[in-house]
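User: Hi! I'm a student and our assignment asks us to look at how structure tokens line up with a sequence. Could you show me two examples?

Assistant: Happy to help. In each example below, the sequence comes first and the structure tokens follow. Example one:
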Amino acid sequence: SSPKNKKLTILEVILKDRTGEIKINRFFAGPRYSNRGWQEFKKREYCTGAVLAASGLVKQGKYGITLENPELEVLDDSDGAIESMKVGRLIPVYPLTEGVDAGSVRRSILAAMPAAKMLPESLPEDLRQRYGLMGLADAVTNIHFPLDRDCLAAARRRLVFDEFFYLQLGLLKRRQTQRKAQASAVILPTGKLIEHFYEILPFALTNAQERVINDILNDLASSQPMNRLVQGDVGAGKTVVAVVAMLAAIQSGYQAALMAPTEVLAEQHYRKLVGWFNLMHLSVELLTGSTKVAKRREIHSQLETGELPVLVGTHALIQDTVNFHKLGLAVIDEQHRFGVQQRAKLQQKGEAPHVLTMTATPIPRTLALTLHGDLDVSQIDELPPGRQAIQTTVLSAKERSQAYDLIRREVASGRQVYVVLPLVEESEKLDVRSAIEEQEKLQKSVFPEFKVGLLHGRMSSADKDEAIIKFRDKETDILVSTTVVEVGVDVPNATVMLIENSERFGLSQLHQLRGRVGRGSNRSYCLLMPGSKSAEAMQRMKVLEQSQDGFFIAEMDMRLRGPGQVLGTRQSGLPDFALASLVEDQEVLELARAAAQMVIENDESLNQWPVVRDELERRYQRLMSGSILT
């Protein structure tokens, strides 16, 4: 038939059998209907009385039942076997490029299948049997042309296992290499300083904190350098855990350093440490880009003599002029904010010091194994008792006045408020302009009786610090901010956070933002104001209403948005998987991790497994050199 679209030809085929009649349309690119030869060829191919097998998605339309995207094969007779690559069987779907059709790719792959059956097996027989894995040759054959769905599932499981197994094997092998280094500092897990610290703490440690502290102290007592990552939710008490590790180092005659990514976060840690260390008659100093020259020289001198046991700071800690007398422990907060070379440079300030890294960004276990499989990971997955849940509410645009009323009541009671705006990805200038306009609107039109401050990403470091300090010191009542408040701003007096266009943030990011309130003893509120009413946006926002558990929220975030979006698409560190999914294949990842551990423990050099060793080198040379997952 001749469609209105002159670049399209529609072929209509009428099929009949004893049960009835069905009309099937096939679409072809180009005006082939005008080609008499093509028409005659199709008439001969689908001649009256021919027996056809048809396959496609059954659809009920206004003209009756039809098949969508049908595949047709002419049979020799009514009882003939279907030998087609596309009808009556599972067929592979490949990504295509212009000028290459699916049939051509399938035929080419089919022609290569005999070679697939000759593939050498890369996993030992006993390992395959233990984990119920299909052989490699069968897996490659069945991933393309499976006999049935069970064969397809088994083939996919084997190939996904291989992807995870060699990744985990590479990470574990790298960890073994790191552990071969001899720790210069063997640190005592018990002592008077730690006992004194427990005595002055005004609260009891949670079970999770005690468990993680035991992990760390056991590492420190080992002859191998510690390389442990501590994950903790907002307010879980990571700093206390780090302090115990520092005190263990100090009482054993070593120095400790704590490096944070921003001056605000470094100063926050410094103030906490000073409060505790002064009671124990221990000195601690702060070194940042703002430190005066005279003070800087004094710190350098006290570090070199060993007189100063603890130094807190920013990137300033890794400058060439900073030399420790005997660095035994390096603590790195929000370690993902530093590059590999920056972290390594801090370690080089001592002779194979122990390294403790921390993050307040919970990520699902599957992501942790994939990104941090070469580290020992501990989770503080329990919040201190008495910490109030933050009342989280999703509001519509019509309820904005209610949000402003709550803000007005809280500020009138002496509390403070964050108003958070999303980054405008298209333009930094738009981002700054929207922040400035929001601050002006709130100051002039909505809350003229209060002081409204401003914080955005284009401000200089000094101006950012000044805005945060003014807010901390109650010189401003309301802080309009982009996501630069996400980590490190600790203002216990802040009780309300209003997040505009909240659907533009990831769930984990919203949870981090929300953690800036609820840090004091007063009831706190997080108001989510999505700009979209889509079902997907509302589903995501409801997760925040229902849960305060950062690990659960991160898991849901990964399921809803995928791991790349959870981590941030730029430099996320995720390897490229051909088949494996961190969302759908968690069970296989756990099996692959266990298998890799068994292989490494049995033979670290992999000499007993030459095929595995060669495959590992082929797949993950970059991983082994440490150039990915940074």
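Example two works the same way, sequence first and then tokens:
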Amino acid sequence: MLVHLSVNNFAIVKSLQLELFKGMTTITGETGAGKSIAIDALSLCLGGRSEANMVRQGEEKTEVGATFTVDNNLHAKSWLEEHDLLDGNECILRRTITKEGRSRAYINGSSVSLSQLKCLGQLLINIHGQHAHHQLLKNEHQLSMLDQYAGHSQLLVDTRQTYFTWRRAEKNLNELKENSEKNLAQKQLLEYQIKELNELAVGENEFTELEAEHKLLANSGEIASHCQQTIDLIYEGENVNALGILQSASQYLIQLSELDDKLSGLPSMLDEAIIHIEETNAELRNYLDNIDVNPQRMAVVEERFSKIMSMARKHHVSPETLYQHHQDLHQQIEELDCSDEKLELLAQDVEEKYQAFLTCASELHKSRQIYAKELNTLISQSMHELSMEKAKFCIEVTEQLSSPSSLGTDNVEFLVCTNPGQPMQPIAKVASGGELSRISLAIQVITAQKVDTPSLIFDEVDVGISGPTAAVVGKMLRTLGNSTQVLCVTHLPQVAGCGHQQLFVAKQTKNGMTETQMSLLDEQQRISELARLLGGSQITASTLANAKELVVAA
């Protein structure tokens, strides 16, 4: 509930300290006195648009503060707690604007963003302006009002979540489809590359082995010559060879060892060297005998070697890694084949998520239909009380599966019939401004009973209404004020007299500057103000009596 409003240097207000109460508070005053100025200041405090010209002429800045009690407002308390701004059961909003147009916002003394101020403000108070019916003509606003009245917040959350889950899956599917089109060309290229690599059929270590064989074949003559020379030196030389020399040395050692026992171990050591030479010679001879100086094999190796080198250059890899490259291409094409399977699975997932969204949207549609039917009856009755006895009201809830959104699949439209025999038509086509104002008020009064805000402000929503209808409007708002704090700016005495208390707005000039003042009227002052509203400048005993009756009747 709003308990205090502080306004300093706002427009034509120098200073205003206003205490607010439970029930219905009416605000009246002369034309041009600024009856709505407190509402404008409060709107600013709730996050409304700020402009430099809001600062009172000659002042440096405007400052507006609003104090609320939130002990019975669970949504507001939860928001404050979530943002670490809760300070007991009281919430103070403050807004400053400098003459240069700079604005700052505060909640319980902490600096906050404008979006945070707006978000909390929506949980604290609901303002219905005299042009609220312009919003009422918009389908999205009509849908919002129905949902607020229905209170099916969890259905809205579920519908929103399933909608975006479905859309994200659909986006992934579309991206994969686009990629699959690109992959088709890539797959065709891979198939061609793999085909030519399959034809070449490179072995895992083939290039290394070919390289070694090619080196051997290319140097076979030189290798054979060196082998033969080595054999001659160590074994087969006609004049001298290592084996013959060692054998002669061995005979001398045998003779020496017979002369001196200390040398007895040397002949055997030399015999081991002779054995190694014989073994070396045998292996070299065997190697030499098997050297294949084969020009035909050389040509085959060179041709294969050349093909592998050429293919490696074509694929921009080294010859040694061509085999692995071949395997990698196989893996890539397998992955592309898998993407086709993934495309099918993702399409199935999209369909499942779409059906989940439709299920939630269908439940939301059913709930909207139930509460639309309830509102049809209540708002029609409310219109009858506002001197529209033959009028009918209908909320048309139509499923439009071709236009899904995060709010479901429904199109909601408010329809009315103001005269018997006429068809139901959209509220936007109602020609009479007075009828539109009354229809708007009837809707607002009924739906406001379900809106989860502890305070409601009606800023001259009774424009175009007079006589007995005005009395009904006043009683409607007073009934609403019995359970909710209601502030109502009005020019109608029948409405003003229904308030539990009444504020009066006056404009005066001091030192060449205009100032607006607002004060709480006592009973006698209130009767005088109602008499002024009834009779204008000519206040008679009769108008005073009528004014007193308005207060008593309330």
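Here is something you could point out in your write-up. Residues 3 and 20 are 5 Å apart (CA to CA).
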